[in-house]
Structures are given as C-alpha cells and as structure tokens.
Description:
Blueprint: H1 27-30, E1 34-40, E2 55-56, E3 61-63, E4 67-73, E5 84-88, E6 96-97, H2 98-111, E7 115-120, H3 130-146, E8 157-162, H4 164-175, E9 185-188, H5 203-208, H6 214-219, E10 233-238, H7 246-258, E11 263-268, H8 284-299
Parallel strand pairs: 5-7, 5-8, 8-9, 9-10, 10-11
Antiparallel strand pairs: 1-4, 2-3, 3-6, 4-7
Amino acid sequence: MKKFLTLILAAGIFSTAAAQKRVVVSLEDSGADEIVHYWDNSTAPHSNELTVDEQMNQKFDMTLTSSTDFYIYKADPAKATGQGIVIVPGGGYYKLSMKYDGFMIAQYLRTIGVSSIVVKYRLPNNGHRDVPLEDAQAALRYIRTEGAKWGVDPAQVGILGSSAGGYLAGHVSNATPDEEKPQFSILIYSVISGINRSRPRSTFGLMLGDYRTTAEQEAYSLQNMVTPNTPPALLLLADDDVTVQPEHSTAYYKALKHYGIPAAMHVFPSGKHGWAGHDEYRYAEPCKEAIADWLKIMQNLKK
Length: 303
C-alpha cells in the first residue's frame, strides 16, 4: 500500500506548539506535478473557524480542512490544447473525496492535453458559505496567471466538480464577476437545488448553517442564479441516482436553455452516485468521450 504524507502547516514544520496540522497527499500518490500551499484561515479573506487538526484517511478523503492547497497537473506540451480546468472535489461539504473526484480526473485530463488544478478547499463548517467559493475563485485566478508557464490560455479556463463539488463549480460560474467567470463548467451528478433538501448534513445544510431560511435556500439554488452571462455547462449524471436526483441537473439545464446558453446533458442508465473517476464504472469510457468532445467544442467557442 502506498504511503501518504501528513505535513505540518506552511513549510511542513511547526509554527507554534499548538499549530494546526494540515494534511497533504504526496506527489507520488496524487500523481501531481507540483503542490502549492495557497492560504489558510489566518491569511484568507474569510475563515471557516475550524481550529482542530485536519484529517485524512487511506482513501485520501479529507475532513476538517482549514487550509487551501493546489495540486497542479501539467499537460504534455506536445499534446497541450491550451485549456485549463479547476477541479473541485465533492463530498457533501463534510469531506473532500480527493482521489476519485480530483486526482483521477486530473490524470485523465492530462492525457488529452488539458492542464488542471485539483483544489483542496476549506469546508464551510456549518454556515461559512463564502469560504469554498473564495478558494475555488482563487484557483481560477492562479491557473490564469501561472498557467501560461504550462501553456494554458487564460481565456480557455473552465471548472469541473462532482456532487457538492459540482454545486461549488456552478456557484463559481454564477457568483463570480462576469469578467472573471470560467469559460465553461462540467457538472457531474451535481447538487443544484436546496429546496426540500434541509437535512443537517446536506450540502445546503452545511453551507448555509442551522438557521438557514427557505428564502436563502431558494436564493442559493443554482437554477435561480443563472443569468445570460452564465457559462456553458456539460452535465453528466445517472438516471438511478437517489443521492442527488436527476431533477437537480435537469433544473439547471432548463435554466440555461431559458437564456439560450450552450449546454449538453448526458444521462447514463445506471451508476447511482459517486462514480466519477472510477475506470471500472460501466459508462466510464462514454463519460470520458463526452468530456473530451465538450472540450473540443469549448475550444472553438469564444468567451
């Protein structure tokens, strides 16, 4: 079994005796070319107020995240398309499923000439709704400014997320100023709507907090945030998903089409929830083909 690293704050050393530990997956285990520690609760614009050590299991699922790291995957210059993608893993906003929702997808994108950043973002910790958003937006800025060194065109940067990460990708696509929006999004069995999903551990419950109102849940439902300037979206989902029902994706698709925004939706017959990045998934190859085809379409689409 491969080993995973647990590093301590900033440069991997203690800052004080009581410093929080941050967890980082090694370059070997993540397959990344580089890992950049971007900020934490003490340096970011907002804090999620977590003060305990971050945790990670042997599947590279992370919880209690209070620092932000970028795992960078650079496309082979001979294959590079000029496109870059920010990947935000899912996990219901109570964990980050880094391996399959992040690393495995990034490694696939690299094979088709697309550079990417997998974001270890800070979780909202029951109501800190701006924290994941600002981490994902920071990754967009980073890949646009630094990605030129890897052959990334700043005008061809998109965002991809699965489940709660899909919600975050959609949130970035709609809540970011127009001039900074991603060129496109890829939403995989994405959480879209907060209506009738008020369980405490739901994505919306953790994002908006215990005292959220119905009005807030409606306002933060992505189908209600769409405007004529929302980026095009590819939606991938399974018909038998009972964790995040297909109606989530269809609501977003309908809102996009209301404004005439380019979109595509692939509904696979089975798979339920959580199949992103799994090569053994029955429809893994059609899923990859749909992503590759979408990226070719986006290459020819001016922002």
